[in-house]
Amino acid sequence: MDTLLSSSSSMVVRSPLPPVRTIASPSKVYSAAARFSSTPSVNGFRRNHLQLPRPFTSSSVPKFSVRCGAGVREIKESEFQSTVLESNRPVLVEFVATWCGPCRLISPAMESIAQEYGDKLEVVKIDHDANPQLIEEYKVYGLPTLILFKDGQEVAESRREGAITKAKLKEYVDSLLETISVA
Where is the Thioredoxin domain (predicted)? Predict the structure, then answer.
């Protein structure tokens, strides 16, 4: 059983419940405020004794990149004409960014597709931030975006945005290759 004491000497209350809050006498509150206001300030802010989290520095911020393996090649705007539009075989273009989480998620699946379909299909990546003219020209609004090109033209209904599993990516590529071989 807890005991609640008051600053007046005549009142003692016994209760089976724990106290909800502790109230100091007015003189203690004012003296605590006076002590706080006399705390020295640093750069105009009152000093407290809590350790604040340190801000990120350039050396502590993790760096991400979307790396290309053996099957996927990263190209720039200057290479787009010769690599994609003038290619004699279909080219799957993946628009990505280093800051894009879904782009990093599908990167291994894209590597696998590039290796598996290497004789039928070329796979390239284009960095969203480094190639703004291509992004504008092909109206890439979401990342990652996949577009299949054949004979210098975007294949109708080949555009796909967002992350995709390896199995679904394989189905997507198979259906595209079937569509362009029939046409």
Answer: 55-178
